[in-house]
Design a protein that fits this description.
alpha/beta, 10-stranded mixed beta sheet, SUA5_domain, 22% strand, DHBP synthase
């Protein structure tokens, strides 16, 4: 198996190519795609087999949190419990390079939840490619950072990604170079948001 390769403009994505990439996800395939922080591997929200394939590629254990990548706040609110104070913070910080740990709603498939805490990581990237992809899909994607086992940093060069991932995933979106720094993770499961991981993005409002 060799993956399909889509060269997509980061600011003006070609919708014809986006539709082909979205179709791969719909059919249960894995896709590598660029975000506003790093490259990520994504799959269909309901696909258990695709999820297991990602776990195998990344050598992840059952405790590893997947992230739900959403188009906007209204979609996010289907999957996470958001009170008024949390909503204000989310509104000020999305779209952007943040992952928010929130208490999950019953809409979230059980296998995506943190086993002990019933929480989910949710993110709304500031990326025209991701927005176009999610618009076409009409629902969020499950996602993890594209960092290979034993590597210290994520893959950022589309050429390296193609060389490394061509036989592991079903499609690769080349949107140019991405950053090295992952998202800032903000735990919002109680009244006082706290930074669980400092990454890219301006996190001064959470301190």
């Amino acid at each position: 198996m060799s993956s399909q390769y889509f060269s997509i403009h980061p600011d003006n994505p070609q919708l014809r190519l986006i539709a082909q990439a979205a179709d791969v996800v719909r059919k249960g395939g894995l896709i590598v795609y660029p975000t506003d922080s790093v490259y990520a591997i994504g799959c269909h929200i309901g696909d258990k087999q695709a999820l297991e394939r990602i776990r195998t590629i990344r050598q992840l254990d059952k405790q590893h949190n997947f992230t739900l990548v959403c188009r906007d706040l209204s979609e996010l609110a289907n999957y996470a419990k958001v009170d008024n104070s949390a909503f204000r913070i989310l509104k000020a910080s999305t779209p952007g390079p943040f992952t928010f740990i929130l208490n999950a709603t019953s809409e979230v498939p059980k296998r995506l939840l943190h086993p002990k805490r019933k929480t989910i990581g949710i993110r709304v990237p500031d990326s025209p490619i991701v927005k176009a992809l999610l618009d076409d899909l009409g629902e969020p994607m499950m996602s993890v950072t594209l960092i290979m086992p034993n590597d210290e940093y994520p893959l950022i060069d589309p050429y390296d990604i193609k060389e490394t991932m061509a036989h592991h995933v079903d499609a690769i979106i080349d949107g140019g170079y991405c950053g090295l720094e992952p998202t800032t993770v903000v735990d919002m499961t109680d009244a006082n948001p706290r930074i669980a991981r400092q990454g890219t993005g301006d996190f001064s409002s959470f301190e």
